[in-house]
Amino acid sequence: MPSLGERLKHAWNAFSNRDNYYGWQHIGAGSFSRPDRPRMTRGSEQSILNGIITRLSIDVSSIPLQHARVDQNGGFVETINDDLNYCLTTEANIDQTSREFIRSATAMMLDRGHVALVPTETDINPNLSSSYNIKKMRAGEVVTWYPQHVKVDLYDDRDGTHKEITLPKQVVSIAYNPFYSVMNEPNSTLQRLKRKLVILDAIDEQSGSGKLDLIIQLPYTIKTEGRRQQAEMRRKDIENQLAGSKFGIAYIDSTEHVTQLNRAVENNLMKQIEYLTTVLYGQLGLTQEIIDGTANEQTMLNYNNRTVEPILSALVDEMKRKFLTKTARTQGQSIVFFRDPFRLATTAQLAEMSDKFIRSEVSSPNEFRVRALGWKAVDDERANELRNRNLNQDKDTDPSPTADDVGEVTSD
Question: Which residues, at least 6 apart from 15, have a Cβ–Cβ distance to it below 8 Å?
Answer without folding.
Answer: none
